[in-house]
Amino acid sequence: MTKRNNYFLAILILIAAGLAFLAPSYGWRLRNVLSPLATGQSEATNLSAENEALKAQLAEFETIASQLGISTTSLRGSNPSSLIPAMVYSRYPMNFKNEMLVDAGAGQGVTPGKGVLFNGLLVGTIYEVFSDGAVAQTVFDPGFRLPVRIGTSSVDALLQGGTEPAVVSISKDAKVQEGDIIYAAAPGIPYAIPIGEVGEVSMAENSLFQQATVNFAYDINSIRAVEIEK
């Protein structure tokens, strides 16, 4: 039905063009008749495009809300939080764990060195910022390093990133056990943001320090939205 209307409209436009050239008075009359038809079709196209754009925005809001526990109302209005919500760009099928590209940048107040959070857990830090995007180095990057503390005794350690992150340089005499919380203790990042839990504890090869694996409460490749510190 739509194609037939398009063909009909095209024929009428050609007739109008011919009349405008051969008989201007008839051409103008026919143009006035066709104008509402063309305008109506243009408005319908615009409404359809706006509808698709609104659906995409709604999908974005719902993704952020479902992953970060933020209400869609707060996303559409003013958000008093000190965190900037951001979507994580897809890198399918190459799901690199060492970094993530997000859709918030300098224009949204993002600056280098700020923490990137998922459900209140530190998953990385911002290291490169663009006008409307940024790249975060995650805890799974081999070059990631962050001073941390462990458990209620606040044992000092160093989080060493990689495919299998670990906490190293733990004092040989420190009491650290599986399940102890690991939290940030680095300048520039709010103190005590949780990162993960202690997994298996062992002695380092040099026998001078202890080390431990880290258990995470998320799958980095399943993260679709994050929050960035302002």
Describe the structure.
The chain has 230 residues and is of the alpha+beta class. It has two domains: 2-68; 81-230, Thrombin, subunit H. Helix content is 31%, strand content 31%. The protein is built from three helices and twelve strands, in the order H-H-H-E-E-E-E-E-E-E-E-E-E-E-E. It has helices at residues 2-22, 24-68, 72-76; strands spanning 83-87, 99-102, 115-118, 121-129, 134-138, 145-150, 155-160, 166-171, 181-184, 194-203, 209-215, 225-229. The strands form two sheets. It has a six-stranded antiparallel sheet. Strands 6-7-8-11-10-9 form a six-stranded antiparallel barrel. Strand 3 and strand 4 (121-129) form a beta hairpin. The chain is elongated. 24% of the residues are buried. Residues 19-23 and 72-80 have low confidence and may be disordered.
Our Rg estimate from Cα atoms comes to 29 Å
General shape:
elongated
Q: How many helix segments?
A: 3
Write down the domain tally.
2
End-to-end Cα distance, whole Å, is 53 Å
Largest sheet: 6 strands, antiparallel
Order of helices and strands: HHHEEEEEEEEEEEE
Summed over residues and divided by their number, the pLDDT gives a mean of: 82
CATH architecture of the largest domain: Beta Barrel
Give the total of beta strands.
12
Quick one: CATH superfamily of the largest domain? Rod shape-determining protein MreC, domain 1
Low-confidence spans: 19-23, 72-80
Sheet with most strands: strand arrangement: 1-12-3-4-5-2
| CATH level 1 name of the largest domain | Mainly Beta
Strand content: 25-35%
Helical fraction equals 25-40%
Overall structural class, as computed from helix and strand content, comes to alpha+beta
CATH topology label of the largest domain: Thrombin, subunit H
